[in-house]
Amino acid sequence: MYLVVGGALPLRQRLHGLLSSERVVVDLRRYYGVGLSSGMAAFTGSRFEHLAGGGDRPGIADRFTAEDLVAVQTLSVTVPVLVALDLLEGSLGARLSGLLQAIPWDIDMVDAEADILAEGSPADQAWHLLCTQHGVNWVIAGKLLARKRPRLLPVYDRVVRCAVGRPPSFWLALHTALREDDAALHRRLLELRQVAGVPETVSALRVCDVAVWMNHRALGHACP
Predict the structure, then answer these.
(1) What is the pTM of this model?
(2) What are 192-198's contacts with CB under 8 Å, separation 24+?
(3) How far apart are CA 186 and CA 60, in angstroms?
(4) Which of 104, 138, 195, 211 is 20 to 30 A removed from 23 (C-alpha atoms)?
């Protein structure tokens, strides 16, 4: 997944700064509906990884289902109908299933080797294959893959990109950031998840995405 070079600050520093905000725990609780007052509802995105038991559950981890297509809608994107049908019943789904079989489903990004995320890897091939489909941009492609591999592949959209910048490869930059300083960033994300009372089924990557997205969204930044 290769995008344009962005800001000067290393990704780890940017994320540590964002995750040190006093509002992070409040934001996580609000997003996932933890301890909400009567009449308040969790964000629809809180169902992204949990809908129908998750996209990486046994039996369907290596193929796209109709539930996966609904799940990405909770993150405010829609897969075009013709692409959706091809994912469910056509050659696109078959090709992606073959690639998914080569992408680990039971490992966190922090524990993965960099070659699993590198250019030319099955994950990278799957992302590029999705991006060749009419009406599927890098945001939709990333969210589809994050649904299938929530522990390994992150959600990365325009709001998060606006907040943290545009490294040449967001996947590899995040992988490095998570592993630096004896995995301090990864441990911080797990700590935030615990303090906020968010279910352990929510990956560290998703905690990071939600925390950054909520913070940057609240600041009212315009993110092209």
Answers:
(1) 0.93
(2) 192/19, 192/24, 192/25, 192/28, 193/28, 195/25, 196/24, 196/25, 196/28, 196/29, 196/32, 196/34, 197/29, 197/34, 197/35, 198/28, 198/29, 198/32, 198/34
(3) 27
(4) 138
* Predicted confidence (pLDDT) per residue in 139-179, tens digit: 999 999 999 999 999 999 999 999 998 899 999 999 999 99
- State both tokens at 29: 């609780």
Q: Which two tokens stand for residue 224?
A: 């092209």
